[in-house]
């Protein structure tokens, strides 16, 4: 089965080569890597020109969701996924995914575990276990592990593309739509590395992210989303708890 990997990017020259190499160095070779660049001016295009295996375009667009949708339209694979240009794949990830789909003909969407790292690739933590389902997504958008998710092209043909009015939680809204029709299945192994740092989009635009989560939850609930407040309380409680724990470690 052919795997189509879409990478949206804009001015990520310092990171994107890690993403490209993590795909190029996979032991599974039946893939295409499509990079949709939003008109970078930092040397990203020069890096893309170095790799003849890439399919890529560079032009201004209306944001990350629109870029990923362009990639979906260009994709010719049996399996689809996207990974951002500051994240990268674990070695052997594609083989594990392809083998799982071959062995489970009833599976349409599979995901694995994820390792969170900082700007310099130091491990921050891991997200493991079978945690994604329609019920868990409705309770907590933070269970989304987007870079380690793969699905059959039939899924996108059925549910459509990303909502381009969303710029920060488009993966959450998309996976909710998928979960309403398909069951998520889990591979018990690390598939990717997710870079978390101060300049990352979701870190820099936290307030807008909260507004988009509210928008999605309100639409899904069909009314006033009380669970939105529960999610936000849990999120900021955990953040405050981490700050306190770190301060206590420093003091000790």
Describe the structure.
This protein is α/β, with parallel strands linked by helices and 252 residues long. It has one domain (3-223): Alpha-Beta Complex (Spore Coat Polysaccharide Biosynthesis Protein SpsA, Chain A). Helix content is 42%, strand content 21%. It has ten helices and nine strands. Strands 1, 2, 3, 4, 5, 6, 7, 8 and 9 form a nine-stranded mixed sheet that branches. α1 links the parallel β1 (3-9) and β2. It is globular, with a radius of gyration of 18 Å. The termini are far apart. The model has no long low-confidence stretch (mean pLDDT 88).
Short description:
It is built from ten helices and nine strands.
Task: Give me the secondary-structure topology.
Elements: E1 3-9, H1 16-24, E2 31-37, H2 44-49, E3 55-58, H3 64-74, E4 79-82, E5 88-89, H4 93-103, E6 109-117, E7 123-127, H5 134-139, E8 149-152, H6 153-159, H7 170-179, E9 184-195, H8 201-204, H9 206-221, H10 226-251
Parallel strand pairs: 1-2, 1-4, 2-3, 6-9
Antiparallel strand pairs: 4-8, 5-9, 6-7, 6-8
Mean pLDDT score: 88
Helix content: 40-55%
Which stretches of 5+ consecutive residues score pLDDT under 50?
Answer: none
What kind of assembly state do the chains in view correspond to?
Answer: single chain
Indicate how many domains the architecture comprises.
1
CATH class: Alpha Beta
Task: Tell me which CATH architecture applies here.
Answer: Alpha-Beta Complex
Number of helices: 10
Q: Outline, from the CA principal axes?
A: globular
CATH level 4 superfamily: Spore Coat Polysaccharide Biosynthesis Protein SpsA, Chain A
